[in-house]
Specification:
Length: about 120
């Protein structure tokens, strides 16, 4: 048996707006768009991608899945993402080496500190 990781699906109230926000934040390209779906990838032929799928309800609880990113310069990357529209989020993490942010629809993600 063989499995290939195709994408991570993100439910979104506005898939195009949220997908474009992530494409801009990550420097990724749009590979597919329709009324209900918006998919991005690092390059057109590189997997996995992120697929934003329309859901007609707001978020009801803390995200059960989130993405972690490890930048070269955490402070600069957090500042860039906040300037791009991310928000700092307190999910009870306390003082940690990572920073929790959320995208425009409230999905949390972490910007990690230096590799130990």
């Amino acid at each position: 048996m063989s499995l290939e990781w195709e994408q991570v699906v993100v439910h979104a109230e506005d898939p195009a707006a949220l997908g474009q926000w992530w494409a801009d934040a990550l420097g990724w390209v749009v590979v597919y768009t329709s009324e209900h779906e918006f998919e991005i990838r690092a390059t057109p032929d590189r997997l996995p991608g992120l697929a934003f799928i329309r859901i007609n309800e707001g978020r009801k609880a803390k995200s059960r899945l989130h993405v972690d990113f490890r930048p070269d310069d955490q402070e600069a990357e957090v500042a860039r993402l906040v300037a791009h529209g991310a928000r700092r989020v307190d999910i009870g993490q306390g003082e940690q080496s990572w920073v929790v942010l959320s995208d425009p629809e409230g999905n949390e993600f972490c910007v990690l500190g230096p590799q130990q």
